[in-house]
Amino acid sequence: MYKAILLSKNDDGTTAASLTQLDEAQLPADGDVTVAVDYSTVNYKDALAITGKSPVVRKWPMVPGIDGAGEVIASTHPDWKAGDHFILNGWGVGEVHMGCLAERAKLKGDWLIRRPDGMSAKTAMSIGTAGYTAMLCAMALQAQGVTKDSGEILVTGASGGVGSIAIAILSGWGYRVVASTGKLSETDYLKSLGAAEVIDRAELSAPGKPLQKERWAGVVDSVGSHTLANAVAQTRYGGTVAACGLAQGLDFPASVAPFILRGVKLIGVDSVMAPKEKRIAAWDRLANELDAAKLATIIQEIPLAEAITRAPEILAGKVRGRLVVNVKA
User: Fold this and answer.
1) Given the DSSP bridges, would you call strands 67-75 and 85-89 parallel, antiparallel or unpaired?
2) What is the DSSP code (8-state) at residue 9?
3) Beta strands 2-9 and 15-22: pairing type?
């Protein structure tokens, strides 16, 4: 038996979340690597699944948890053996395949990457999908030629997981980062991560003109909707916007003007199905280039049961940084 959060659908279509004991016989049959999960996280997508606020879960019952780190117990996959240390992000885990907010999981070996040498399971999940996505966004800006001398970088949703780690990464690389947040009370926190300036998200979140005064050489956006449209409208000639989230909405009420008049590039960043080589590159850079002291200020460690009660707080924007789940606590 092992401890897990289990989601089930009530008769009225709502989601019920409970901490329970499951039998290992209930692990998915289509996995080829059985793992002991030491740490997981509560990401925005996990919060949607746990609360049922969005149809994230497509197979019932479901164990949520799109992230996991721990140790392999048994494997029939040629790349993995008992005792290996792994990281899991995405691949539909916690949506259509039982996830990692549990002491055990059975996953596909092709989904896993090796934890970098010297990185603990807790550190890996302190970074998690949010930090891994932030690194993919930062790498996308670099790949498009945005350098620290190109100009200011805007990070939206700055006090969330992606935003916090994006600030730490980019400021560590020498960029001048401007943080956009709805919580100006977190200004000192954001500046401690490396933000040179903090602006109110209200400056970006309302409908705006298709072309606005040029400011940003690059943008990391986890918000979407009007915020993304305004960020694009303010991006300098030849600049790049990396879009990875939809906290404000799925819509993109924008014009083609910034793209055809200023040569702005809008790059979509996907962390769920990203190929293994891109994942390994991102995690290697996180292991070597992310300031450990800054990371420590971003996280809150919680026990497994608390993931259920904290999920609504994430959706309400009341959680700063990252919730790291000690699965064994």
Assistant:
1) antiparallel
2) E
3) antiparallel
Q: Give the architecture-level CATH label for domain 129-268.
A: 3-Layer(aba) Sandwich (3.40)
d(CA 166, CA 109): 29
Using a cut of 0.90, tell me whether the model's pTM lies above it: yes
Q: How far apart are CA 272 and CA 129, in angstroms?
A: 9
The secondary structure element, H or E, covering residue 323 is strand 322-326
Residue type, 60: W
Closest CA to 109 of 146, 138, 156, 76: 76
CATH annotation of 2-115+294-326: 3.90.180.10
Asked if residues 227 and 180 have their Cβ atoms less than 8 Å apart, the reply is yes
End-to-end CA distance of the chain: 16
- The full set of domain ranges for the chain reads 2-115+294-326, 129-268
Over residues 296-315, the pLDDT tens digits come to 999 999 999 999 999 999 99
**Residue 54 pLDDT level (bands cut at 50, 70, 90):** confident
DSSP characters for 105-153?
EEE-GGG-EEPPTT--HHHHHHHHHHHHHHHHHHHHHHHTT--TTS-EE
Phi, psi torsion values for 150, nearest 5 degrees: -75, -30
Instruction: Using the structure block, give the residue that is written with the tokens 């092709």.
Output: 110
Beta strands in 14-125 (DSSP E): 15-22, 33-41, 67-75, 85-89, 104-107, 113-114
Geometric angle at alpha carbon 207, from 190 and 43, rounded to 5°: 45
